[in-house]
Amino acid sequence: MTENLHPSQLHQHLQMYAYAKWSSWGSLLLTVGLLSLGASLPRQSKTWVLAASVGTLEVGRRHRQTAKLLRESLGDIDRASRLNFQALARTQTQTTAQLALTVGSFDQDWKPENLITDPVEYIQKKQKHVALVGGTGDGKSTFTQYLSSKIGGRVIVYDSDAKPDDWAWLDQADVIGRKGNFKAIDTAMGNDLKTLEELVELRGEGGDNAITGRERFMIAEEFPVLVDECDNSTPWIKRHAKRGRRYKQFICALAQNDTAENFGLQGDKDTLYSCFCLVRLGQFGRDYARTKLKDPQLEQWLKAGGKKRFMVDDCPCELDLSNWGTTTSAPVENSGGGNEEARSQSSVMNEYEQFILNWGQQHPGEVLKAAHLSRASRLFDGMQPDEVRIIFASMADRGLGEVQGNGDRLGWRWSQ
C-alpha cells in the first residue's frame, strides 16, 4: 500500500493514524475519569455523567476502529514512518543541495557560447526597437544614453517622473512630461503619429534621401504608467513598432516587467517579440536565465558581472565602459570637406557638447576628463562620470574630436 502512495498522501495517512490512535486512548481515559467523578456526585447528576461517559466511550471506539483500518492499509507502520521521513527530508534539503552544487561548481572563467559584446550591432542587425526591462539602480538610464549615442538621431524622452538632474545630457526641451504632465506626453505622442504619416508620404515621393535629417530616438520611461494615463501611448507604440525603423524613428520603451500588457500590447505578444529586442537588466536578466532558459550556470555568470552583464533576448551580453569609446561610424577625414562636416555637426550640438567643443578648441591637444568637467563648470553638476564619457564617445563618433583611454580613464580631446 505504501508504495502506491504519493509522499504527501503517506504523510497525511500517518497523521490520521496517529490522531485516531491517541484520540481513542484519550477517550478511554476521559471515560474512566467521568465514571470516577460520577461516583461521588448526587444521584440527580449521575445520569448526565453516565450519558457523557457513554458518548465519550463511543467516540473512542470509533477512533480505535479508524486506527485499526489505517494500520491495516499502511501495513508496517515503522517502515511507513521511515518513508515519510525520507520524503520530508528530500523536500527540505533539495533546494539547498542544488544551490550548493550550483555555487560550488561555478567556474569563474566560464563564458556562455552565445555571448555578445556589442548589443547595438545585434539590435541593428535585427532591425528592431528595444523594450528595456530593469529595476531601480539597474542602469536603465545609462544604457539608453549609450544606445542613443550609437544609433543616433534627435533624442526625445517621455518621462513623467524625471528629476531636475535626470537626462542632463539632453536639451531640456526634449524631456517631456516632467512633474507628471501626462497631457504634454499624450499630445507629443499624437504629434509623433502625425510625423510618422508625413515621413511615409515623403519617403514614398522622394525615397530615403527625402527623410534624411529627420531621424529620432524616442525614449518612453515607465511605459505601463503611460498606458494608463495617455490615450495615444498604445497606438504610438504599435505603429512605430511596425513601421518606425523604416522611417528612422527608433523607440526604446522602459518597464519593470516584460509582459505585453506593460508595453500597451494587450493580447499582442507577437508584436512585442517580433518588433522589439528585449533587454533585461539586473535581477530580471538573472530570473530569465533561471526560469525561462533553465540555466543556473548562466544565472551565476550574470550575477558575478554585476551591471556589466545582462540579457538581450536569449543572448547574454557583457558590456564594459571600455567598449563605449569605439566608433561605429566612419570618422571624419582631416580635409576641407571633413571640416565642413564637423562644422555642420557642431551646429546641432546641445549645450553640454558645445561647452566641451569650446574647451577643446581653447586647449588643443589636451585630454579632457569627466572629473575635470565637473570642476570647470556648474553646467555638469549632478551629471555622473559615466554620462560624461558617453558624451565624449558620441562626439567622437560624429567626428568631433577623439577619445583616448578606456573605462574610467576615458577622455576626449579636440583634433582637427
From TrEMBL:
InterPro entries: P-loop_NTPase. It comes from the Bacteria. This is Uncharacterized protein. It comes from Nostoc punctiforme (strain ATCC 29133 / PCC 73102).
